[in-house]
Design goal:
This protein has a single domain, classed as B-lactam Antibiotic, Isopenicillin N Synthase, Chain (Jelly Rolls, Sandwich), CATH 2.60.120.330. Helices cover 22% and strands 20% of the residues. It contains 5 helices and 15 strands. An 8-stranded mixed sheet has the order 2-3-11-8-15-6-5-4, covered by helices on one side. Strands 7-14-9 form a 3-stranded antiparallel sheet, with no helix packed on it.
Length: 295
């Protein structure tokens, strides 16, 4: 039987969630626990990320990827260990983390790490590198830095809410993860999948099979923006690797897709593993997206 990615409304844990009844919060926790245990993916509604901010995030990202290659390379990733700046088409192979170095990914991306890092000794010590390496910001589009910074802080708050739910699902106090993540190294990246003019190499896809690092990934999926762009196709869909069951995607809603990362939570014999996934190849019109935060 196909498995449907559930849509879970997390509004009871939002800013006005103090008015939510305990039974409403318990229902959210049970739904998230079941999704993480049985599937590894779930879609959230009631996340509180403004639609206008999502639109600006996508617009500035697309404008960056539309720049000439030479201009994008001005903010190229400075060192291999830094997840900062621009990485060109074919420069990454996510399947390498699973032992497959046979090909490279058909995508380019731009990434940042923590923003507004405090000027304190903790963040300057040698052990803080490369987690707190400075971000690289392009000159164009002019609004990219401010929009990405706002989006980072917004998803930073959303990730904290989700970790409260995760803690409760594990039978822990809701603030259990707070002092473990108060100096987090979350990063945001936007992937761009250019139009495939030539057939891919054997085995080559948009993003190779992999699991995510970190505790949780928040992904803006195709159709997650508040309104579709006229005439544009959707970017490549995420392909969860869940044999032998087939996965049916949820109906299109203003939402974000969640997946746990590699540090699987283990308590009382219940394991929530990081689900493997990939982005398949396809002859599609190029688009920027999805934008994601890994916390």
């Amino acid at each position: 039987m196909p498995t449907t990615v559930p849509v879970i409304d997390i509004a009871p844990f939002g800013p006005s969630g103090d008015r939510a009844r305990p039974i409403e919060r318990d229902a959210v926790v049970r739904a998230v626990d079941a999704a993480c245990t049985e599937i590894g993916f779930f879609t959230i509604a009631g996340h509180g990320v403004p639609a206008a901010l999502i639109d600006r995030m996508l617009e500035t990202s697309r404008a960056f990827f539309d720049l000439p290659a030479a201009e994008k390379r001005r903010v190229a990733r400075p060192r291999p260990e830094q997840s900062r700046g621009y990485l060109a088409l074919g420069a990454e192979n996510l399947s390498y983390s699973r032992g497959d170095a046979s090909t490279t990914d058909l995508k380019e991306f731009f990434a940042i790490g923590p923003v507004d890092v405090p000027d304190e000794a903790y963040y300057r010590r040698p052990e803080a590198y490369p987690s707190f390496a400075p971000n690289l910001w392009p000159e164009r589009p002019a609004a990219l830095r401010s929009v990405w910074t706002e989006y980072y802080h917004t998803l930073e708050g959303l990730a904290a809410r989700l970790l409260r739910i995760f803690a409760l699902a594990l039978g822990l106090p809701d603030d259990f993860f707070r002092d473990k993540t108060d100096r987090h190294i979350s990063g945001i990246r936007a992937n761009h999948y250019p139009e495939q003019v030539d057939p891919p190499a054997p085995g080559q896809i948009r993003a190779g099979a992999h699991t995510d690092y970190g505790a949780v990934t928040i992904l803006l999926p195709p159709g997650g923006e508040s309104a579709p762009r006229g005439g544009g196709r959707q970017p490549p869909a995420l392909d969860p690797l869940l044999p032998p069951a087939q996965l049916r995607r949820a109906d299109r809603v203003p939402s974000h897709l969640l997946r746990p990362g590699q540090p699987a939570a283990l308590r009382g014999g219940h394991l929530r593993p990081a689900p493997a996934h990939q982005v398949p190849a396809g002859r599609r019109r190029g688009r920027a997206g999805p934008a994601r935060l890994t916390s």
